[in-house]
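name: query_chain
kind: protein
chains: 1
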Amino acid sequence: MTTEHLTDSSLDRAVDELGCQVVGAKLPPLKQININGSELTYIEQGKGELVVFVHGALGDFRTWSRQLAQLAPKYHGISYSRRYHHRHSSTKPAIEYTHRHHVEDLIVLINALGRGPAHLVGHSYGATVAALVTLERPDLVKTLILGEPSLFSVLSGPHDKVSLRLYQVALDVVRRLFESGEERLAIPEYVNIALGKDVFHQLALEDLLVINQNAHTLGPMLRTYFEPTALDDTSAQKIKTPTLIITGEFSPGIYKAINHKLHNCLPNSETFILPGASHGLQMENPEDFRSAMFEFLSKNRMKLGDDSC
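structure:
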């Protein structure tokens, strides 16, 4: 494992700091770590138990910057850019954007940091990755916080399957736009579908910066987005890890259905409805997300008998 501060131009640094303002926090020094042949960028802050944040689609290490700063007094937080996302360098093409690669990366990352097991906090695609790591390597995960994972494999009822098919059709249009070179149309369409409302053109400049710097990942992600995962309504019952499932009050029905099914399947789970938020969750209502996260982590730290700080 090798880590080092990035030495890009001051202009690139300023751009990243602007993007960090998505969640209103000062950007810690950027670092890189070699994971499975790729240099992944991350930021870290604080001391104590390890908390690893896993971002969703069109995000990167800046997505969780505010949560990272708030954790610092009691936890050692890590927010990293998943493979192919902003500041990433790799010899492998983005066409290999799969759940498997992201799961393997996170497993190696937790081990390489040498501070595990970790609390995992994931959003959307990142929550799926976090859940799959927990299923495969429960020894690496203390607790799990899932913000509307895209775990479509847990949906099995007739009504849910119809909703899933409609969602697949909608995102297939986005994928085709992207692959035909219409990225400027594909990105807003994806954001509006994911959030269930027409909000893309209302986003702040800082939000748009992060999205645009990760726009190249959307097409590759959508090509494998709906492929079955190892976590379905049966295997989910094997996850004994304490889990908090967060659902946005105004999120699209497909994510609410996934979270409802997960709560029924995971034997040690609890739920929280994030007021006033859609699928954007921690960016739409960071304060209530932070409160729910802290309460869950604190409660389970006491249950586990860990007095570290």
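note: Confidence is low (pLDDT under 50) at residues 1-11.
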